[in-house]
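[09:14] KT: can someone run the structure on this one? pasting the chain below
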Amino acid sequence: MAIVLVGCQSDEYTNAPTSLDKDLTLLLEACSPDQGVSYFVLPNETDYTSIPQDPLNPITKEKVALGQLLVHETAVGGNPKISGNKYSYVCASCHPAASGFSAGIRQGIGEGGIGFGFAGEGRVAMDESTMPRDSIDVQAVKPPTLINVAYQEVALWNGSLGAQGINAPYVQQNSGIVPENLFGFQGLETQGIAGQKEHRLKIDAEFAEEFGYKSYFDAAFPSSPEDERYESINGALAIAAFNRTILANQAPWQEWLRGNTNALTEDQKKGAMVFFDKGKCFECHTGPALKSNEFHAWGLLDFDPSETIIHGATRRSFNIEVQKGRGEFTGRAEDDYKFKVPTLYNLKSNKFYGHGGSVTSIREVVEYKNGGVKQNADVPDAQIASQFGALNLTEEEITNLVDFLENGLFDPNIARYAPTSVLSGNCIPNNDPQSRIDLGCD
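[09:31] RB: done, structure tokens below
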């Protein structure tokens, strides 16, 4: 096989494109809107002009620096229901870098959670004698990853957060349910605002003063009036700016797209061929993030009450019931049971998939889609996505596709987006006594 020298001063070589590389390239050209391979390439995390962003919240390095700290600063956990939990939790409690910026457990726990384990899998709820179950801050759905969220204009599994784009027609009619949408921001910015109240966080002038963040706010929002500069909205904008830079651009697939034919194994390339052809995955998962702003029903189960902590009898999240997905927000029957199309990068960082965490391996996800037998009998067949079932994938094709999803789309250095420390000196991403032990902070 011929080899090509990458550079005169480099010891790195890359194989010349094989027939499989060429076939995959042609397939990508057919699956992209006249952009070819480049359509699927993620930008560098510091190339702010190339990262999708809210026009009302342009990304700057100063906002990103502040947002990175706020996402991980457990001193932000300043509005607990039980005073002893103060400064023990933060956004990253449910979105730790160690588990791919998604919860390492089926149901994320903010206040009322203890422990971390090795990669977030060891977090459990406090004993009921310490904190009543109905007081614990738990996610009513599996927390989606923060990876590649720049490529979504609305947030949450049902897309209820965000005032622009596809949500614009519903903002006024749902203002009583999601009042934060009235600020007019896209989903990530709106989520940053709503999340502070929902998850008992406290970002204000007192916080900025006490923990040394005033200079960071000054640098990030120099034109903001001083009496408003250190408040929750600017905190939300900084958090959103940082979250938009969490990109899995070091995954082998991204390296292959940039011309390194050695980045993927032959089996992974075959898996990519299945992804963009017979498997029909690309019909929903496309673009640089391999996701979309669409919503589809796959007949997956909600949380099983016997296995999880539930938000009361109705299982509400951000004041919107989750069982019917998008339909609970839009009020349209045709949207019932449909949920957001997620990114497919770094899936193997945790083992729970779907809005209810009802699937526990990547292979199981592929076999479920290929088999076409829905988990949730309450979901009408008419709502189920057309790509569900009837794919007739062979065992070899399934194995190769799983390899591509599990390893080809895995950025091994995603922890680079977490800071090594925060200004308070608290343990991150959790600061409860057990987490401090697990994380080696004591």
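[09:33] KT: thanks! Confidence is low (pLDDT under 50) at residues 1-11, 311-320.
[09:34] RB: yep, looked fine to me
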